[in-house]
Specification:
The chain has helices at 14-21, 23-51, 56-76, 113-117, 121-135, 140-149, 154-181, 186-206; strands at 2-4, 100-102. It is mostly helical. It has one domain (2-206). Strands 1-2 form a two-stranded antiparallel sheet.
Length: 219
């Protein structure tokens, strides 16, 4: 479950400058954590297929990774005025204090191996990129394997993309409202917060924290 505390009032300058202020977190997320999480996702995928269990240490790191994404994007989209902490301590428990919370109880045992088998698109994206770079072009066989191994995730990923596209429009309107009035209109805030929730659920499922399929809902 993802909870985002809507500020009663947001400073008029925030929609303009928070994009700049969030840059350090954006770099940490995309340059460091995405790569590390892709490696641990491969380890988790193999471990679950071999044993039916998700290693607790990896589960804690994946929960921290998804939480970091949630906080970064929530601040980037001006859904909260609380600056995300640089907290990388692996934990399934949300320490709070960021205006955004995510409760998750990773399923460590009794995993559905067949479901996990076709949920490999996250780490495979990096493998495919390496193949593309080494061959100097697009590798069709690699894409085919990626689509097969990521088949379970494709519907949820398409829904997340559509939600994101709609959120971009809603966020622009919401930012204009904040700039001129200092407050998010409730429908626009719900729309923007919806994509952040969708993203967090998709990644929690992708990183094997749960076997419950992400709902096709922004609430």
């Amino acid at each position: 479950m993802v909870t985002i505390d809507k500020p009663e009032r947001t400073a008029n300058w925030r929609p303009i400058l928070q994009w700049i202020l969030v840059t350090p977190h954006w770099l940490v997320l995309h340059v460091v954590l995405n790569v590390v999480a892709s490696v641990t996702a491969i380890i988790a995928w193999i471990a679950v297929l071999a044993t039916g269990k998700l290693p607790p240490g990896i589960a804690a790191f994946h929960a921290t990774y998804v939480r970091y994404r949630l906080r970064t994007f929530s601040y980037m989209y001006c859904l909260t005025d609380k600056y995300p902490p640089f907290d990388f301590s692996p934990s399934t428990d949300d320490p709070g204090g960021a205006g955004v919370t995510m409760s998750v109880s990773p399923r460590l045992e009794g995993r559905n191996r067949l479901n996990v088998l076709f949920r490999f698109i996250v780490p495979f994206a990096w493998i495919n990129l390496a193949v593309m770079l080494s061959l100097g072009g697009v590798s069709i066989p690699a894409w085919i394997v990626a689509l097969v191994l990521g088949a379970v995730l494709i519907p949820a990923a398409i829904f997340a993309f559509i939600a994101w596209a709609i959120t971009v429009v809603g966020s622009l309107l919401g930012w204009l409202a904040v700039i001129f009035t200092g407050s998010w209109p409730d429908p626009l805030f719900r729309l923007a917060a919806g994509w952040v929730r969708v993203d967090a659920r998709l990644w929690a499922y992708s990183m094997l924290l749960t076997d419950d399929y992400p709902p096709f809902s922004i609430d």
